[in-house]
Amino acid sequence: MSSSRLNYFLRLTQLRVGCVRSIRQQTKRVTNKMNGQRSCYRKLLVPLVTGNTMYALFGINWGGNEEKADVIKTDNTTVEDVRQQILNKADYLYSENKVVALYDFLRMHQHSEDDEILWRLARAAVDKGKLPEFTDMKRDLYYEAYDYIKKALELNPRNFAVHKWYAILLDYTGELEGNKQRLINAVQVKEHFQKAIELNPKDATSIHSLGQWCFTFAAMPWYQRKLAAVIYASPPSSTFEEALTYFLQAEETEPNFYSMNLLMLGKTYMRLKDAEMALTYLTRCINHPVKTPDDKQANDEAGCLFKMLTQKKPPSDK
Known about the structure:
The protein is mostly helical. It is 73% helix and 0% strand. The protein is globular and about 65 Å long.
């Protein structure tokens, strides 16, 4: 009996060694075929050949720790399952306003070829740049976000969110480079906001953003108008009435969705000399929950404007 058992274990060991040798040889053949090719092909093809398609398609570093992606993978998990898990977690972190955690999570997928992941990463980089503790990184984060959104636009020019964030980042990076570059970008900014609305007429933030564009050009000081006249034969222009139309449309589409929209409604009514309506929306902005840096900015500005409108005029000396 002992001899039979010994022979059995010897044969089993030989089979295991043979399997390991076969796997090593197969891996070596795959690696040899890829010698001389660019590293980007290695990152894509090695995972595909060895069965790790999720690494290839979502840009996770080959050979990295799978647990870092914080997605659950089983034998039956598909590429689409992993993609959906990434998007679900990203949307959850965004809804909880966990800005840094969201940025860190999505940045693990910065080499993704998925436009839905990339525009969310661009948004996360912008939101991180708005945090007071990352002020010194704001410029770098905005340009990093711009690179992500450019790639997303190349991947899918039919995604409304990509057009919206491309327009936002064109304006943000233009502002960093000065008034002239911001004016140069202005026409493209408007076109991409309009495209976002065309692709999704129910997206309130795209409508609000177009209203912001209109307000900016309606309120443009004379020296910037002169600069615009140098850049364009027919400089971009707008009116406060046009801006108001978009802010009201955004609020109708999704009531109370954004503190900044309430603020801009108040500011626009002030420009149109309608103090009663201005106070209505400034009050709503002041009462809006403060969760983000944008909310804080809107709340502070609305408070100042509210006091300015409600303070009594000093008695005349005459």
